[in-house]
Sequence to fold (373 residues):
Amino acid sequence: MTIASYVLGVVAALLVLVIVIEMLRRRRLRERHAFWWLVAGVLALIAGIFPTTLAWAAQLVGVQLPTNLIFFVGIAILFLVCLQHATELTALEAKTRTLAEQSAMQDLRIRELEQQMNGRDRLSARRDEN
Amino acid sequence: MPTPLEQTLIVMPALNEEASVSAVVSEVLRTLRGVSCLVIDDGSTDNTAVAASRAGADVAQLPYNLGVGGAMRLGFRFARDNGFENVVQVDSDGQHDPSAVPDLLNALADADIVIGARFAGYGSYRVRGPRRWAMSLLSVVISRISGTKLTDTTSGFKAMGPRAIALFSSNYPAEYLGDTIEALVIAAKAGLRIAQVPTAMRERAGGRPSHNPIKSAVYLGRATLALLVGLIRPSTAIPGDEP
Fold:
């Protein structure tokens, strides 16, 4: 391995960590969404500074080419992030639906109040204008 | 001139506390004459809201669970918009003794946030293992940045004065553990004065604090993360303060 590729590995890992931590600091990223990116950054930093750990880990799990372990771990982390986003999206959809229902029911209650106070509500008043 | 209690809002986040909320609200209104009590029903699936309303509290129902942090921010916004000077957070499970509220309010004369602390040589609250280490670590770090000795930084029994209400109604963390740890860090960084008053805790109606070692270790990790994130974030200005 050349010095240039060693430096590239370390700098890229540091860049990931700096970006994630800075976004966390400015509240652009919530802790729970930063977790897997932090894990990825730390792993990349360890493998970048001590390349022997990568060869050791590859041997430990029986992967012949250490680079393949990087691809495997990288894809695994991307998979986990995607899965986390999908569950968050599902939760958000459920919440917007609840909000829409609540808004419709509040509208109904307000119209009932209007009807009691003025004898007619906003919707039927609009019908009179036509 | 209204009494301090008349300018105080008791905020009670409640999640499925149908069994206990009614007794807690009644005791608060009976013990603290003239106080206003707002129960935030944090997406309960039982009759918490009905029970609280019958007991005489104002009830705000959240459409889904936001966590204690989200519920408390609604409480702070309500307090700000309705002109309350003080907010006291009280748990709806009955572990906080309402008769300690006047002590907290008195201490607000020289502080912006007063914590009702469980370990300060009063009562019989005990924890062990990683949970204890987490609490010690938090106490040391938050005591240092706030400049006062605090022994119980994760207590949910707190009184907040006008400056704390102004800060927290715009900026209160909703993250897990954020409502205790990060909130104190935000307050200390914004220059609010934090104090503590020893209080006794009662047995909780529903179970005791968990002593599962794995859960406690996870708690230690998450508490440390919440603390670190709070520490690296820039300080926030208090709305309405002179720059």
